[in-house]
TrEMBL record:
Gene3D superfamilies for this protein: Carboxypeptidase-like, regulatory domain
UniProt-recorded name of the protein: Carboxypeptidase regulatory-like domain-containing protein
Source superkingdom: Bacteria
């Protein structure tokens, strides 16, 4: 009887654990910086967390993001000015396209 209770308890714990992690859906953010060589870095800020993305021919991508609101910071090379895009929303399983980000001189 005691073994049966332990086995049933373990099955319930594993079942609940697997259900809890299946509901997490991740999104992303993409964008293109012009001119393509004007930026040296792109960062994503959420509260106290910061992520960095690689820039390839002006294009950057952030993946595996939880639903929420983020700030994108583009660090520009001289003579261009840095750009900050606030309140970028990411929804479940969706990729937010920022389109073209034109850096000003």
């Amino acid at each position: 009887m005691k073994k049966l209770c332990v086995v049933l308890s373990l099955l319930i714990v594993f079942a609940l654990g697997s259900i809890a992690f299946t509901n997490i859906k991740l999104g992303g953010i993409i964008g293109k910086i012009t001119p393509g060589d004007a930026a040296s870095a792109v960062s994503l800020v959420a509260a106290t967390d910061t992520l960095k993305a690689q820039i390839s021919q002006g294009v950057f991508t952030f993946t595996n993001l939880k639903e929420g609101v983020y700030t994108v910071v583009v660090k520009a090379n001289a003579p261009y000015k840095d750009a900050v895009i606030e309140k970028v929303a990411v929804k479940d399983s969706a990729t937010t396209d920022l389109g073209e980000i034109k850096l000003q001189q």
